[in-house]
Write a structure and sequence with these properties.
By secondary structure, the chain is mainly alpha-helical. It has one domain. Helices cover 74% and strands 5% of the residues. It has a two-stranded antiparallel ribbon. Strand 1 and strand 2 form a beta hairpin. Helix 2 runs antiparallel to helix 4 and helix 7 packs antiparallel against helix 8. The longest helix has 37 residues.
Length: 186
């Protein structure tokens, strides 16, 4: 076989830098979703403790409500990038399902650029400012557990973390849109 025959053979699909970036971002979103899923464990223990304390010992607690809403809020928020990865966010499919893959990708890309990224950049900025302030002052809830008030600053740090995770996953989705627009496999 001569050199000209080798040149006509298409090269094997290469895994480029962009593919590695998309894979890494998807891995981060998957890890955040996995972590978020495990937040159900402390929430469940707190709720079981509350039920036993309330009904078996007639000693209801005040702190389990705060543990419940903080862990559920963190779980809900940290899983949002994973949900975006899996296509689980709400979408109006009346027209969307009838469009071609290229049209869907074009609409998605426009929406990411006009609405998704600007909105999340604002949330990232505002959330980071609020979280930083909460950490600086050591913000705590008014409710006391024993003699110690419950810390709020770790919970507030989840807001900019969620925005950052969603921005990363949005970048991965935007790259997929670009590939679909160009007619490449996603």
């Amino acid at each position: 076989m001569g050199m000209s025959a080798l040149r006509r053979t298409p090269p094997p699909p290469a895994v480029g830098a962009v593919d590695r970036v998309v894979t890494a971002i998807d891995g981060v979103s998957t890890a955040a979703g996995w972590l978020a899923g495990w937040l159900i464990v402390p929430m469940t223990f707190a709720m079981v403790y509350e039920v036993v304390a309330r009904y078996a010992f007639h000693a209801p607690t005040k702190w389990t409500y705060e543990v419940g809403y903080m862990t559920y809020g963190a779980q809900f928020m940290l899983a949002s990038a994973y949900t975006l990865l899996k296509g689980g966010h709400i979408r109006t499919d009346v027209f969307y399902e009838r469009w071609s893959a290229k049209t869907r990708a074009t609409i998605d890309a426009i929406c990411y650029l006009l609405f998704f990224f600007p909105g999340l950049l604002f949330i990232l900025y505002a959330g980071a400012v609020e979280a930083w302030f909460a950490w600086e002052i050591g913000e705590r809830t008014a409710l006391r557990i024993g003699s110690v008030p419950w810390p709020m600053y770790p919970f507030k740090a989840v807001i900019p973390m969620t925005a950052a995770l969603l921005l990363l996953q949005g970048l991965s989705e935007l790259i997929r849109c670009g590939r679909a627009i160009r007619g490449r496999a996603q």
